[in-house]
Amino acid sequence: MASAKNQNSPAAARRAKLEEARRKERARERRSRIITITAAVAVLAGLVAGGGYLMSAADEKDKAEDQARTSPVTGEKSWDDLTQDHVETPVDYPMNPPVGGNHDPVWMNCDADVYTEAIPNENAVHSLEHGAVWVTYNDKAPDADVKALAERVGKTPYSLMSPVADQKDPLMLSAWGKQLTVKSATDARVAQFFTKYVQGAQTPEPGAACSGGVAK
């Protein structure tokens, strides 16, 4: 049995102090592990929840796009049995802007191209044959709408935009065999027209180039 002297010796005091320090360190380590595990579980739960939200949002977006593609565009005009011959002479189209028919052998660049001057109809029609949407406007179109539509075209491959001074309405959208008049860039049919007809089912030559043609 240790004597009281040994128990109260400096060495015993140091051992007791060291043991107490070790006990406190183990306690801190346990608390740290608990906090780390709790945080990891919270992060994982957040990732699972966030992933579920993103997947749900993506599913909703896909459903909306599918509906836009399969639903008719209210107010659009359609033309069938359009000719597709390549010609090097001016073409007298029955609609303005034209939505199809004989056209120039070279397409107008339509890789998100915004033209501030008029472009040849015959080249633009070739772009429509490749699956482009053509946005046109006249001098009655509000500047804010022209700017907003230009921004949309500038972000959308297989689209182009240009002024057509003598078109009947201020803002018009055309695809091969399809045409729509809208009152403003915020019209919900604008987004639907792009979703439905950019490289849409109406395209005679899907996948054909929209660059490497005529640029102005």
TrEMBL record:
Residues 1-10 have a biased composition (Polar residues). InterPro entries: DUF3105. The lineage of its organism: Bacteria, Bacillati, Actinomycetota, Actinomycetes, Kitasatosporales. Keywords: Membrane, Transmembrane, Transmembrane helix. It comes from the Bacteria. It comes from Streptomyces pratensis (strain ATCC 33331 / IAF-45CD). Residues 16-28, 59-68 have a biased composition (Basic and acidic residues). The chain crosses the membrane at residues 34-55. Pfam families: DUF3105 (PF11303). Residues 1-30, 59-81 are annotated as: Disordered. This is DUF3105 domain-containing protein.
